[in-house]
Amino acid sequence: MPIAPVVTVLAITIIVAGLVVLRPGLTAVRGGKILAFFGLFIFPGLAAMLGFESHIERSKETSFCLGCHIMAPYGKSLYVDDPSYIPAAHFQNARVPRDQACYTCHTDYSLYGGFKSKVRGLHHIYAQYLSTPHQPIKLYHPYNNRECLHCHLGARSFEQGAVHNADPQTMIDIKSNKLSCMSSGCHEDVHNVSKAGQVKYWKPEQ
Amino acid sequence: METQNPRLTKHLRVAGTLIILGLIVQLASLFWNHPLSFLLFVLVGSAILVAGILVYLFAIVSIPEKSIKDGITQSAELP
């Protein structure tokens, strides 16, 4: 959601609530009571809901994820000039929305997946500010093929890929998450931040 | 002669001030692009806002609207 409507609602609410604070005598008449009810109950509730929604949407942005210093190498890895790096290839070729790159691949595509992502985000904040993050950071669970298949399932390049179909069991194992997409010899180059100093980087044209 | 209950006036002012303060904190959090801004919004802004709303609701249900000048208060619902 764009921030402008949220700011407008917040500003209007501040003005209406300010009227009640400066002129509480207004509430002696029916119109004033209605004004106070909207200014001190309806509008603040609406403003809070819109603000919350705006924050939730903003927490999906790549810049939000990279706001923590510890994530900087992962953000840099999106610019690795090597198509075998899966996140970089997706980011640079706009296979994922660039402004929501982290969220697109790291949310759970399941019922309550978005909610679980937010809970994990709160845990990240706890780890960053109230605890000590593990170094190097790692996923809570092995990456689930479900997240890849959310987009690739049914795609010709996936369904008819020579390696995917070399053995009939391979495709079954991929789809049932028994064989990880990131298995050795498959799409194993993910962020690889430990090799950050040994790779070339793509510089997007301005 | 009837005037507005000063207690109600005071509570409305307190509620309004808390709500404005909470909204200002929420507004500031929207312009701060940082993971902590969400916590600022929820834990500080929304907490102050909810406190203000509760003060307002408490005031309108528990404080008589009118007061009689001689100090005896009277509920608005009473004839």
Strand segment count of chain A = 0
Share of helix among residues of chain B?
55-70%
Biggest sheet layout of chain A: none
If you compute it from the alpha carbons, what radius of gyration of chain A comes out, rounded to the nearest whole angstrom?
A: 24 Å
Largest sheet, spatial ordering of strands of chain B: 1-2-3
- Average of the residue pLDDT scores of chain A: 92
The structural class of chain A is mainly alpha
Order of helices and strands of chain A: HHHHHHHHHH
Unreliable spans of chain B are 70-79
What number is the mean pLDDT of chain B?
Answer: 83
Number of strands of chain B: 3
Beta-strand content of chain B: 5-15%
Radius of gyration of chain B: 17 Å
Secondary-structure element order of chain B, as H and E?
A: EHHEE
Largest sheet of chain B, if any? 3 strands, antiparallel
Please give the count of helices of chain A: 10
Give the N-terminus to C-terminus distance of chain B in angstroms: 15 Å
The largest chain-to-chain contact, stated as pair and per-chain residue counts, equals:
A-B, 38 and 33 residues
**Helix count of chain B?**
2
The first-to-last residue Cα distance of chain A is 26 Å
